[in-house]
Structures are given as C-alpha cells and as structure tokens.
Amino acid sequence: MAHIRPFVGIHFNKQLFPDISDLIAPPYDVLDEASKAALQSKHPNNIVSIDLPHLPPKSVGPDATYEEANQTFQRWLAEGTLTRDRRPATYAYAQTFQHGPRTIHRHGMICLVRLSPFGAGEVVPHEKTYDAPIEDRLKLMRATGLQLSPIFGLFSDPRNEVTSLLFKNLAKPDLTATLDGVQNDLWSVIDADIENPIIDLLKHKPIYIADGHHRYTTALQYQKELEAQNGGPLPPNHPANYCMFVLVSMQDPGLLILPTHRLIGGLSDFSPAAFKASLLDNFDMTETLIRPDQLLAFADTLEKGDTATFGLYDGKSRKAYTLHLKNPQLLTSLSPDKSESWQRLDVAILQRYLLDEILQPHFAGGKELVKGYTADPSTIARDVDGSKFQIALLLKSTPLHALEDLSKHNEVMPQKSTYFFPKLATGMVFNPLR
C-alpha cells in the first residue's frame, strides 16, 4: 500500500513575501496566453513563468523554452526569491472557499508518495492519459529537476485520524495566499511524533488519484529514464522514486466534486426533435421550461435527480431538455468488456452512447466532434451560441465511491469525469528531484 515520507521543500521566501498571492498560479493546463500574461503582470516572480514555459499548455515546446524555465528557477533560488528548507517536513495544506452560501474548509497533507506502476494497487488512477501532455511535463522535469505541482490524491480515513494528527496545535500559517477567491494556507510540520503515526496509518491504504494523472505518469517516465541511465533500479531513497502529492481524506467535509458538462460542436442538421427520435427506446426526452439564464438552477435539479438523468441545452432554439434513461442495461452490449460499475456511470453512458453512438455518427457525419468542458453551468448559454458549440450536455457529478469501485477492476473513466473543486494551487511548495 502507500509509502509516504516528508521532504525538503523549496518555496517562496516568507521573509520577502509574507503573502504570496501574486506569486502562485492555477494548474498550468487550465491557462492560456491571456491568463498567463495576467498572472505575470501581477508579479514578475509568478510561478507561471517556470511552470508554463510554452503555450498552448499540454503541447510540446522547443528545448530552449524549458531550459529558460530552469534558468529562471536557478536565478530565483540564487537571489533568495526561493528558499530551500533545512529539514524534511510534512506540509499541512488548507484551502478555504465559498460554494453557494457555505464557507468550506478542505484539509490536506503535502508529502512524497513512493511511485508504483498503475495496476499495482498502491496508487490508483481513474482517467486515461495522452502522450503530448506527458512529453511536455517530462521536458520541464528534465530541465528543472523539480516537481512543481502536486498530484491530488485521496485516501480513506473514516475516523479522521490523519487530518486530526497533522492539524492539531497549528498556529499562524508559514505561507498564505489567495487565488481566485480561494485562500491557501501552508504549515511546515517537523515532528516525528506526528509524522511517524501518519506514515503507519497510510501504509495500509491505497491512494486514489483525483487530479494529476498526466503528471504522475510523467514521474513514472522520469524514474524509468534515470533507471536506464543507472543501468538498473535506483537506490531506494532516490528522489525520483517518489512523487509530491496533496493527500486529502475521502471523508473530509471540504471535498467537493462538481460535474464537468460537455459542450459539443461540429454538428450538422441537428434538431432536438431529430435527436429525440434517434434515442429510440433508450431515453425519454422532455422539454424543460426554463430560460437560458436558469441553467445553473437546472444543473442543480439534475444533481438531485436520479442516476442517468442528463440535461440538453440547444443553442439555436435556446431551449433545455431533460433526458431520462429507460434502459439501465444500455452499455451491457455496447461495452461488454467493462464491469457493471463502469457501465452504470453517467459519464460512461454519455460518452459511449450519447456521443459515440448517436451524435458522432448521426449528426456529425462520423467526424470527430468538437468538444469543450465546463463545471460552471452559468456560462453554457454564452458559450453555446452556434459558432463553435451548438449544444451542451449536462450531467451529475461522479460519485466518490466510483473511484474505489473501478479500482477493483483496474478500469478508468472517460476523460474529464471528475472535477474536484477548487483546484490545487501551484507555487505553495516544490519538490526537488536532484
């Protein structure tokens, strides 16, 4: 099961920056040229200059861009903008944010987790990965010798033992920052009486990746490269055998999963009536009498409804519809190699049937659909205007237990199946690999 350990982190110098709000960034893969420039305009030392050296994100850039990122890192370290801790630590990490009327606190632990191949049972994935994002992150890791962004991992802790141990008696945070309305606080914990019990508790538990599949796969690839150079396995405590995680209990009250709604374009001759007819005996489809500005409330209604209930928004008519699955065995014949747990997932039904069997062959001429994603239903009417996207498919959030259910069958979900809100900040602490 999971093997964790503290590490000697690198972070922004709290003596120079008592508040690092202008220095941190969202995960690189949600940024574009405009948002990168906005972050750099806040402060010349914003971490985005290192973490996103090449645009667009998830594409592979020239070697020079990654080397420039390393030169920037080395300069910041030499001039004291960044500082290296003197002793290994486990880092308590809390995020405080608003969701609707509620103030929510999510508690996590930043530590190293020993790498294990997918399928070995120690670290469990739930989404597919693709080559280009991995090669981009690998080139950055080679150049800088750093892991800049933590993987978001989950573990089961019904009695809240780990979080209680880590966060007891903490005073003022060592580092604090506010990004996009989310307060991020970090404490350095150097106490064997806390660290050792946590290590013992977690060694009996698997870690489920919530976010960061490409970055974890990058770490595995980096480890393999060094092993090839070494002519065999690396020494047990070699930094490349470990990967930086933020670990959050599955029972943490601040763990919030939002659905990722699909925006679809590339359609021809689409109409709600034709779409309804194509669903045959598998779905009931009824018009929902709401205005476009009520899609947020519509999505909330779906969230409280039955499993396999979807929403459809048609940008041309500006009307919304509700789809109810009538055939719960729908994917039994379409994906017979998958487990029943996978076949019953809303995201699987949406991808394998509504997209693959209906929209792409019947309304896109078999061509690849144009796809977009959003966790914010209030933006759907604006984005689905017939230019790039013609319709949106809304769905419920994926239940947390699905990660555990699929792990028993070594299965992964379709891409963009979960959206853990908020995202982890990049820039709170970095893991040196050399």
What does this structure look like?
With 434 residues, this protein is α+β, with helices and mostly antiparallel strands. The chain has helices at residues 33-42, 48-51, 63-79, 131-144, 161-167, 192-202, 213-230, 272-278, 295-303, 330-334, 340-343, 346-363, 380-383, 401-407, and strands at residues 4-5, 10-12, 82-84, 90-99, 102-114, 123-124, 146-147, 151-155, 175-179, 182-189, 207-211, 242-249, 256-258, 261-265, 283-288, 309-314, 319-325, 370-374, 391-394, 419-421, 431-432. Strands 1, 4, 5, 6, 8, 9, 10, 11 and 12 form a 9-stranded mixed sheet that branches. A 6-stranded antiparallel sheet has the order 15-17-16-19-14-18. Strands 2-3 form a two-stranded antiparallel sheet. Helix 3 (63-79) packs across helix 4 (131-144), helix 4 packs across helix 7 (213-230) and helix 5 (161-167) runs antiparallel to helix 6 (192-202). The radius of gyration is 23 Å and the shape is globular.
| Number of helical elements | 14
Enumerate the spans where pLDDT stays under 50 for 5 or more consecutive residues. none
Share of helix among residues?
Answer: 25-40%
The count of strands amounts to: 21
Task: Please give the alpha-carbon distance between the first and last residues.
Answer: 26 Å
Q: How would the global form be characterised?
A: globular
Binned strand content? 15-25%
How many strands, which pairing sense, and closed or not: the largest β-sheet? 9 strands, mixed
Average of per-residue pLDDT values? 95
| Backbone CA Rg | 23 Å
- The computed structural class is alpha+beta
